[in-house]
Specification:
Radius of gyration: 20 Å
Order of helices and strands: HEEEHEHEHEEH
Largest sheet: 7 strands, mixed
Number of helices: 5
Oligomer: single chain
Structural class: alpha/beta
Helix content: 25-40%
Distance between the termini: 63 Å
CATH superfamily: Vaccinia Virus protein VP39
Strand content: 15-25%
Shape: globular
Number of domains: 1
Length: 178
Amino acid sequence: MRRLALSILFLAAFGASSSARADGRPRKPRPRAGVKIVNVGGPLDGFDHPRYARPDFRHVDLRRGKHTVVADVNTVDLHAVFGDSVRVLRASNVPFSSVPGGWVKPSKFVRQAEELGVERIIATTGKLGRKPLKQALRRRGWSVDVRRVARQGSPEPWYVITGRPPAGTAETQPATTP
């Protein structure tokens, strides 16, 4: 009986320590195998993060780069490029307002996210792209959270917009194919 109690205590202590760091903070959950996180647009501030090299991360952009699929989001169907295993659609440095050199239509971006059946959109944009993306998400019934983040070396902040589809939409609606 004593041996059983010690083994249970040992397993409980070992299990608790593997889910937390040495300083007591919980660890970030690792992505599940086969679940893709797609980034539309360039890396934020041009920093190529090691996250982009992970196998569950796909990067689509108009510019060619390492681990990048070159595509115009306004004309190409993201479902045809990535399939239906995308859970998080991330947009960094995406111009959601009309700028010279190309931009992404917010309504088209949200529609493609719905077709992919994503659980969440995380978009990092400047002041000009914040309002059009928020409006497009809210028109389609998504819940929207906006955080303001200071940008290094610039007085203008970044805005991180997190959108979640209406309750039950992402889980019950299968992704449609064109």
